[in-house]
Amino acid sequence: MALYAELHRHLGGSVVPRVLWRYFERHTSELISRFANYPEFEEFYTKPRNTLDEYLELHTLVESVQTVETLPYFIYRLLRGAYIFENLAYLELRYTPYLRTPEHLSQSERIDKMAEIVEVVGKASQLEEYPIVTSQILCMHSRLPYEVNKAIVDLAAQSKQYVCAVDIAGGDSHYAERLEEWLNLYDYACSLGINTTGHLYETTAGCYTELLPYLKRIGHGIQIPLLYPELLPELAQRGQCLEVCPTTYIKTGTLQDIRQLKLVFDRCFDAGVDIAICTDNAGLHNVRLPFEYENLLTYDIINFKQLQACQDAAFRHAFAWPHGERPASLLNELLKPEPPKVLAMRD
């Protein structure tokens, strides 16, 4: 039964190792020629990295094969797994459409091709077989020029049938040298009525208070409660939600021990700041959302009541969830037993 919402999952990092290996075997075996077998590939694909930048390099492996022709293949398998194994009722997929266009084209030609990518992802995500409510978040990228990033914002505004928000990705340590650009782009997105989130305060190098007022949700944001708890009342006042992805911080070397997240959750709960628990890159991690829940409970980072609060927050802050309540509440009403019928007394 589908019960959960996933607010932070990258299309590039969502492909589980086995699916990616089979695709490479059938279509581009040269990309895996250096691996003797599947276990060796899986170990390479899912092992922890030393830094966020090193970790993000893995996205290029998948981006290179996620094209107009192949995206339906990957999305079908992604949604099948999300519905059957993760009990997802709602999924926001984020990615940079420009990076799915052919590299041999000019910049303007690639910009023109982005709309086709969004449409393909949107149509491929509508599966009667696996009825999950889906929407897309289009990611601007720290290593793309201003013209491309502005075109991504424009595309989001023109594609509200499929797109619910914009984001900035590419490693939060790279924003500083172009901070004025990001402020202008987010201001522009807000002026167009586009929802906003952004990879921010994930690492100690990605702390930019100037960007916070432009965001409805904060991608990761764990350094706020860890290093800048004085900002939490402002987040609570603005109704911002943190998208916390526990396994990511171990895989990127951002945290050394998952139990460091207890302070994140405790301070956010105390300040009234919502947290949605997410996977980020379920494929790269080889984990699913229920595992993230279980891990947090196992290490006594949160309790069951707090877990339920995070699950409720995920639906409350979902940009495109069409209902006023989460599925569990709707299901309770549906399954509520009818009162016994009172038979009329006969004379």
Automatic annotation (TrEMBL):
Documented EC number(s): 3.5.4.4
InterPro entries assigned: A_deaminase_dom, Ado/ade_deaminase, Metal_Hydrolase
Pfam hit, one: A_deaminase
Tree of life domain: Bacteria
Regions annotated as coiled coil: none
Key words of the record: Hydrolase, Metal-binding, Zinc
This protein's record includes keyword Zinc: yes
Chain ranges of the Adenosine deaminase domain: 5-320
Entry's Gene Ontology BP terms: adenosine catabolic process; hypoxanthine salvage; inosine biosynthetic process
Cofactor requirements of the protein: Zn(2+)
One GO term describing the cellular component: cytosol
GO MF assignments: adenosine deaminase activity; metal ion binding
Similarity annotation: Belongs to the metallo-dependent hydrolases superfamily. Adenosine and AMP deaminases family.
Record protein name field: adenosine deaminase
Biological source species: Tolypothrix tenuis PCC 7101
